[in-house]
Q: What sequence folds into this?
């Protein structure tokens, strides 16, 4: 018995929750480094402060994948209980995050936020495989990418929109996150929970009996414990997953470099408006710590020093708003790229391998351009447009290739295990990899974007390792009869 093909709006509704998930990730990606800088972190320490994010994914996703494979709630089904739990926790974390008063507090909340987002996200990947026949899976992942693109673009522009349109200030006292960022995170929390609820209420899951009828049940299968199942899955990882893992390693190292260091790199190199060092303008003690009064307000050397700091900090906040807005372009481009793929793959076959390879190489070129445009932020449109093509492919092609090559009975677990190839490169980058590599070129943070470009091109070329025809070849999802 074959699964019925779903209509576009059915696929759209089942993927709509990704809008909220991406709001969470995009606000994190475009704003988290700005929050760390505001709280006093230096640029070289920022990647390490992000380590909580990939660690959370590495630990949470395989566990959630296993649990969602083995869950059935009579009302919410198999995957939707995790959508709801993750949405509630993520929304709370988003509301609290910008009120962090210390770097360690923001880093801890990042761990909570990323773990919560992963609880919702991993089952969404598996839901596509649960609901769609193989012929529609690329189509489903592309629609998912389309929604992710919308979320990335809108959420990345939120701080600038809140400042310019809602007239909420993007300035604050030293060490305090601006009100515009706080409002943006609150909006993100509302969008997160609302979009997840749309998917929960509009999408029904197949029952265990129906999955068995489709040949994807687990009747008669040997039941193991969670740890044993996860470890055996790592040990029996299919060849396609391992080769895709090489592609993923270079891809996610590159994007982690962007998320962690794009703000200090671009505000300094392209806008000439880096975060001012408060110690240069404030009264300091023998250890170089700025002095504060009884109300914990910074004591400046003079009124002129305070004015100079305020002007520089205002320029930094405006540059950061614009960097976030420009980063949103990669979400918009990925959306348009996904839209083109959606229409094309509905009626035509594609070679997933070469589509992904070409997309990643274009993204790498986008990163390399950044070094050559100091003082010309308008050209970031070109850079992030090319990066968006790579991002749109990263969010669809690897999952489509993988879902056609693994045991459908363990789709949630497989998607969770596959996440190790996303998390491990980010962890390596966080513990010093990206800073070490870019300092081989120079001390300036902009060289991290050059490393990102080189790694994304290597990711593209790594697709040549993939030779499995079932993974590579995609057939149309809609019959042309």
A:
């Amino acid at each position: 018995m074959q699964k019925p093909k779903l209509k576009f709006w059915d696929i759209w509704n089942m993927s709509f929750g990704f809008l909220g998930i991406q709001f969470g990730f995009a606000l994190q990606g475009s704003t988290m480094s700005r929050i760390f800088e505001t709280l006093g972190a230096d640029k070289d320490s920022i990647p390490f402060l992000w380590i909580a994010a990939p660690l959370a994914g590495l630990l949470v996703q395989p566990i959630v994948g296993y649990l969602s494979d083995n869950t059935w709630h009579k009302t919410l089904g198999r995957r939707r209980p995790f959508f709801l739990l993750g949405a509630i926790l993520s929304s709370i974390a988003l509301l609290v995050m910008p009120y962090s008063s210390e770097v360690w507090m923001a880093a801890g909340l990042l761990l909570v936020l990323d773990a919560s987002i992963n609880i919702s996200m991993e089952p969404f990947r598996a839901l596509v495989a649960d609901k769609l026949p193989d012929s529609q899976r690329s189509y489903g992942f592309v629609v998912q990418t389309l929604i992710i693109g919308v979320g990335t673009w809108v959420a990345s522009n939120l701080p600038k929109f809140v400042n310019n349109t809602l007239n909420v200030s993007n300035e604050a006292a030293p060490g305090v996150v601006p009100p515009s960022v706080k409002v943006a995170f609150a909006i993100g929390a509302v969008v997160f929970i609302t979009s997840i609820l749309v998917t929960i209420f509009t999408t029904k899951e197949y029952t265990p009996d129906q999955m068995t009828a489709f040949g994807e049940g687990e009747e008669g299968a040997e039941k193991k414990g969670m740890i044993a199942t996860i470890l055996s899955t790592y040990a029996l990882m299919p060849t396609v997953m391992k080769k895709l893992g090489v592609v993923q390693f270079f891809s996610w190292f590159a994007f982690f470099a962007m998320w962690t260091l794009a703000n200090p790199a671009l505000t300094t190199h392209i806008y000439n408006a880096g975060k001012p060092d408060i110690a240069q303008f404030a009264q300091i003690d023998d250890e170089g710590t700025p002095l504060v009064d009884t109300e914990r307000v910074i004591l400046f050397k003079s009124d002129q020093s305070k004015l100079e700091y305020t002007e520089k900090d205002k320029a930094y906040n405006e540059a950061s708003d614009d960097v976030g807005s420009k980063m949103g372009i990669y979400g918009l481009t990925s959306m348009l790229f996904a839209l083109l793929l959606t229409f094309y793959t509905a009626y035509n076959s594609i070679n997933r391998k070469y589509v992904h390879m070409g997309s990643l190489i274009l993204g790498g070129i986008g990163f390399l351009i950044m070094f050559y445009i100091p003082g010309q932020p308008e050209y970031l449109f070109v850079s992030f447009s090319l990066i968006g093509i790579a991002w749109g492919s990263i969010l669809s092609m690897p999952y489509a290739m993988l879902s056609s090559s693994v045991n459908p009975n363990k789709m949630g677990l497989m998607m969770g295990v596959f996440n190790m190839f996303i998390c491990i490169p980010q962890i390596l980058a966080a513990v010093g990899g990206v800073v070490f590599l870019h300092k081989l070129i120079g001390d300036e943070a902009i060289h991290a974007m050059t490393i990102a470009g080189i790694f994304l091109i290597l990711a593209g070329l790594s697709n040549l390792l993939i030779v499995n025809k079932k993974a590579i070849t995609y057939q149309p999802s809609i019959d042309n009869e």
The radius of gyration is 23 Å. The domain at 8-207+237-474 is CATH 1.20.1250.20 (Growth Hormone; Chain: A;). Confidence is low (pLDDT under 50) at residues 477-481. The first helix runs from residue 8 to 15.
